[in-house]
Amino acid sequence: MPSNFLRQASPFTTSLPLFPFINPPQETLDMSISPWSTSWCESIPIGTSHTKFEFLSKFTTTFGIANSFSCGSLRQRRQVAAIEGLDAEGTSDTDDVLQGNWSWEFSLRADLPHFPTEPKSSLSGLHEWARDPLVFKTQEIVDGLKETIQQKSRKSPITITWSKLIETTCLQSFNPANLRKFLRIFWCLWYPNCPIIHKPSFDPKDASACLLVSMAIIGSCLSPDERDNEMAKGWFDAVEEMVFDDDWLDEDLGVATPFQDVTAESQRLQSLQAAYFVCLYQNWEGSDSSKARIRRHRYNTLIAVARSLQRTSATHQDFSLLNDESMFEWARFIGMETKIRFVIRACFSW
C-alpha cells in the first residue's frame, strides 16, 4: 500500500472548542430588544478565554494567494525561486521541502544564491530553448493563447489583441526557463495547500498545455518578483478562456463518452484540475468582475463536469481481497486517488 502518496496541509485545521460556554445566564435567553437588557457577551467573565478563528480574520482582511494561504514568507519565496536545481521534472530534491512539518530550514542556509534582480535577456536564452524538452510545451501554450485571443467572442473579457509584440511577450512569459521556475514555486509553495496532483508521476512534458499554463500562473502569482506577478495578471483572462474552451470541459461529453478509457478519463481530469486552478487564481487575485464571473458561471461549469467523474464511483477497491501483490495496479490507484482528492477539494473546499 502506498503510504506517502500526497501530503495534505490545510490552513483551516483547529482543535479549539466551538462552544466554551455551555450554560449561559438565564436572563440572556430573553430575545426582547431593550437598551437596558444585559447581552450575553457582557455577561461573559473577563478572564474566560475566547475561541478565535484566526484564518477567518486572515481571509477577510488580506488579498491574494500568498497572503491568504500558508505559502511562506517573502524571504522564503525568494530563496525557493532562486534554487534552480529544484527543477520541474525532478522530485527527489523537492520532496525534501515537503517532508516533515513543512520545514524551511533547507532554504534558510547562508550559502544559497541570491534571487536575481535583473531579468535574463530574451535573446540570450534562444539557443538554450531550442534544445530544451519543454520548448514544445511553450509552443503549445503560445498557440493555444493565440487561437483563444484571435477567436474571442464579442462578450469576451479578454481586452488584448494578438500581434507580433503580444506573441513575443507570450513566448517570453512561458519560455522553458520560466515554466521551470513557476512550476518549482508551485510545487514548493502552493502544492502543500492543495495536493490534487500526483507529484511523483507528474511530467510536464506529458501534461496538457491547459494544466501546465494554469499551474505556471499560480506559480507566477506566488513569485517574489513583482514583474512575474504583473505578467501573470496580464494573462489571467486569456488563460481562463483557453482552459474553459477545452473540449474535455464540455458538459455533454460526459453523456456521450463512456469514461472507462483510462486515457480519456486522465485527460478530462487534467482539464478539470486546470479549471480549478483558474477558478483559484481569479477568485483570489483577479478583478471584481473576474471574481463574479468565476463564482456565477465558471465554478458551476466545473462542478457540472466533475460529476461525470463519479459515474465510475470515485472509491478505491477493497485491497484486502488482493492475494497477489503483483495484481496491484499502481496506475489505477494513482488515478483513483487523484480523482478522489480532486472531487473532495473542488466540491467541498471552495
What does the model show?
One of its GO terms (molecular function) is zinc ion binding. Residues 183-324 form the Xylanolytic transcriptional activator regulatory domain. InterPro entries: VerF-like, XnlR_reg_dom. The protein is mainly α and 350 residues long. The chain is built from 15 helices and no strands. The longest helix has 24 residues, at 262-285. It is globular, with a radius of gyration of 24 Å. It starts with 39 loop residues before the first helix and ends with a helix. Mean pLDDT is 75; it is low at 1-38 and 88-123.
Q: Quick gist of this model?
A:
The protein has 350 residues and is mainly alpha-helical. The protein has helices at residues 40-43, 54-61, 65-68, 74-82, 92-98, 126-131, 135-150, 164-173, 176-190, 209-222, 226-244, 253-256, 262-285, 288-306, 330-348. The longest helix is centred in the C-terminal third of the chain and has 24 residues, at 262-285.
Low-confidence stretches: 1-38, 88-123
Shape: globular
| N-C termini distance | 30 Å
Kindly provide the radius of gyration, computed on alpha-carbon positions and rounded to a whole number of angstroms. Answer: 24 Å
| Largest beta-sheet details | none
GO molecular function: DNA-binding transcription factor activity, RNA polymerase II-specific; RNA polymerase II cis-regulatory region sequence-specific DNA binding; zinc ion binding
Keywords: Metal-binding, Nucleus, Repeat, Zinc, Zinc-finger
InterPro entries: VerF-like, XnlR_reg_dom
Protein name: Xylanolytic transcriptional activator regulatory domain-containing protein
